[in-house]
Amino acid sequence: MKKVNNIAVLTSGGDAPGMNAAIRAVVRTGIYHQLNVYGVMYGYRGMLTGDIFPMENQTVANIIQRGGTILKTARCKEFYEYEGRKKAYENLKKFGIDGIVVIGGDGSFKGAQKFSTEFDIPCIGLPGTIDKDIAGSDFTIGFDTAVNTAVEAIDKIRDTADAHDRLFIIEVMGRDAGYIALHSGIATGAENILMPERKTNIEDIIDDLQANERRQKLVNLIVVAEGDEFGGANEVAKAVKERLPHLDTRVCILGHIQRGGSPTCLDRLVASRMGYAAVMALLDGEHHNNMIGIVNNQIEYTPLDHAVKATQKIDPEWFKIVKILAS
Ligand code: F6P
Known about the structure:
Blueprint: E1 6-11, H1 19-32, E2 36-40, H2 44-49, E3 52-55, H3 82-95, E4 99-104, H4 106-119, E5 123-127, H5 143-164, E6 167-172, H6 179-187, E7 192-194, H7 202-214, E8 220-225, H8 233-243, E9 249-253, H9 265-284, E10 290-295, E11 298-303, H10 317-325
Parallel strand pairs: 1-2, 1-4, 4-5, 5-10, 6-8, 6-9, 7-8
Antiparallel strand pairs: 2-3, 10-11
Helix pairs in contact: 1-9, 5-6
6-O-phosphono-beta-D-fructofuranose binds next to loops.
Subcellular location: Cytoplasm
Enzyme class: transferase
Family: Belongs to the phosphofructokinase type A (PFKA) family. ATP-dependent PFK group I subfamily. Prokaryotic clade 'B1' sub-subfamily.
């Protein structure tokens, strides 16, 4: 197994709170083990343009608590093509880079896998996404912060909903996964949670709202995942307004505030542990081209070409709990 001397770290795809904590862990673990560590700006785009710079312990001072990513991020189409990856390799060669840590989602890992097979540079993936939609880890960097941001926002919405006796339909992020919706909906006592992993029956929602009205429950919160098949909060509101026009209904789309902000303690811990494990994996040589995950509180390795989107298996009991607790 080739010895690794010069490693690079980059963030790719949508940013997620905790990415900076992961960068810090990679840089400081690498330097501790006498590696040269380079930062690549704007994800794979920086590999193509040669936007690469040496990092020191000092470069990552005062960032553990910051959202976003000091390395910036981008989605890079050119890297999907062989010619683009070749250009990236040539740039890395100039710095003697012989190991890479990619912090991002499953799309970023697919690029890393291709690259490392073609050019024999080991890559390690760290799951960084607020959507938590990656198989092989109980945690992804950023999810806990995003879900807590959603909870804080929904709690505030509940205050104003309560003051006006309103129905609020709140849309949360998650792309085609409903983890943010499920967690934030349960934690805020939402009356209904709509998500892609579960069939949405608008008639059931109308029935619930009518039943709530009969028993004079005047505040109703419905949390909708953006990827729900019904088409998001505006579509749900349209259907509700058609059937129950007398209800005072409002829509709130939380949007990108869920991606920003200071990472929670959990995200900082997960990012620090994963960042450390990524460098150790590059050094031990046994886990090259794997994604680092945490499963049952243990570090787990998933080959990058197996790192796929997780499909959430929802225990139906959760929905029983939602119903009982919203009564
Ligand atoms: O994957 C993270 C995410 O925030 C998704 O939840 C959302 O669908 C998407 O990125 C938004 O992407 P963009 O910032 O490019 O609009």
